[in-house]
Amino acid sequence: NAGVTQTPKFQVLKTGQSMTLQCAQDMNHEYMSWYRQDPGMGLRLIHYSVGAGITDQGEVPNGYNVSRSTTEDFPLRLLSAAPSQTSVYFCASSRGGPAYNEQFFGPGTRLTVL
Amino acid sequence: ELKVEQNPLFLSMQEGKNYTIYCNYSTTSDRLYWYRQDPGKSLESLFVLLSNGAVKQEGRLMASLDTKARLSTLHITAAVHDLSATYFCAVNFGNEKLTFGTGTRLTIIP
């Protein structure tokens, strides 16, 4: 099993550009989520999905879109990048929601917006 | 408001010493997770604590959960350099989300 994979590992964008961060898992997990990690702030939940076709907002959803067309993939779209979105982004997955299941994290994408 | 607070934020300790990291949370929960993160790396699951009084141990690390006090502790025994990392607690408040603490950056000094 590859576990949770994320691409790209690093990305530099200019303000206003759009891009998609890819996340995939091969563990047949129903639950997937996106976090951003900023210095001194821990991880903050952006969006999550409890299954294909179902997504919901987390703590900091503004400026990001998600969709979940398959169980395996959960891409995160930045619509118009801003410097405030400079961060490290982690995707995670688990068999069910975090009430009963530990989450497995991908390697992260380090994004810089100039 | 759903909040998770860790202290200390930074901790330098000598090899061989014992210390405890604290994780307080704002409202009822009986689902708490501890993660470790090495610099530039992803998060690695350490412990899952699922009930009041739960205690789990792995090597020099021991985690406990007191749901009445809304407190979890991560105790380090006889620290070694390999334990240098950032440690996060994360709490589920009965919804579909995990709320993370700000992390404790632990540095073990020879």
Helix content of chain B: under 10%
What gross morphology of chain B would you assign? globular
Largest sheet of chain A: 7 strands, mixed
Report the oligomer: heterodimer
What level of helicity do the residues of chain A show? under 10%
What portion of residues of chain B belong to β-strands? over 45%
So what's the overall shape of chain A? globular
Rg of chain B (C-alpha, Å): 13 Å
Structural class of chain A: mainly beta
Give the strand content of chain A.
over 45%
* Helix/strand/pairing category of chain B: mainly beta
Q: What Rg of chain A do the Cα atoms give?
A: 13 Å
Structure commentary:
The complex is a heterodimer of chains A (114) and B (110). Chain A is mainly β. Chain A is built from no helices and 11 strands. Chain A has strands spanning 4-7, 10-13, 19-25, 31-37, 43-51, 54-57, 64-66, 76-78, 87-94, 104-105, 109-113. The relative contact order of chain A is 0.33. Chain B is 0% helix and 55% strand. Chain B is globular, with a radius of gyration of 13 Å. With 110 residues, chain B is mostly beta strands. The chains are: A mainly beta (114), B mainly beta (110). Chain A binds chain B through residues 31, 33, 35, 40-45, 48, 50, 56, 58-59, 90, 92, 97-100, 102-108, and chain B through 4, 9, 31, 33, 35, 41-45, 48, 50, 88, 90, 92, 94-103.
